[in-house]
Design a protein that fits this description.
This protein is mostly helical. It is 77% helix and 0% strand. The longest helix has 24 residues.
């Protein structure tokens, strides 16, 4: 029987094979990270105001806030977590991945499966960030 954690590792591994070099290049350049975040917001905006979609993409919003906090120095992330979060965004915005986005919902579901797998892998750091974030309000 496959566990959720091993399935997440498998999904993330496939995403790393496709986009690892691209993520390596992006994560070292704050300007590229800002561009990635902008492109992610643009893709999310294309889905409209459907509350079901907004709920599905909520982890992406957390990833973006974590990345921004890291780069502005407010909440530092480990290098591996930053890399995985950037991988999640790169995979999400790429139209050509394991299941291409032109296949409609299947392509969207594929993107979300990678984002959720990354979320599962960095869950402890996400929860730590969300706790930290609540103290900042």
């Amino acid at each position: 029987m496959t566990t959720i954690k091993s399935k997440a590792t498998e999904v993330v591994g496939k995403a790393k094979k496709l986009f690892g070099k691209q993520v390596d290049a992006v994560v070292r350049q704050e300007e590229k990270v800002k561009e990635l975040i902008s492109n992610t917001f643009q893709k999310i905006a294309n889905f409209g105001e459907d509350p079901r979609i907004k709920k599905l993409v909520a982890p992406i919003g957390v990833f973006i806030r974590m990345i921004k906090a890291h780069f502005n120095g407010a909440h530092k992330l480990t290098g591996s977590t930053l890399w995985l979060l950037v991988l999640g965004l790169v995979y999400f915005i790429s139209p050509f991945d394991i299941v291409p986005d032109f296949l409609g919902f299947l392509g969207f579901a594929d993107d979300l499966s990678v984002v959720l797998a990354i979320y599962a892998k960095v869950k402890d750091e996400v929860e730590e960030f969300l706790d930290w974030e609540r103290t900042q309000e």
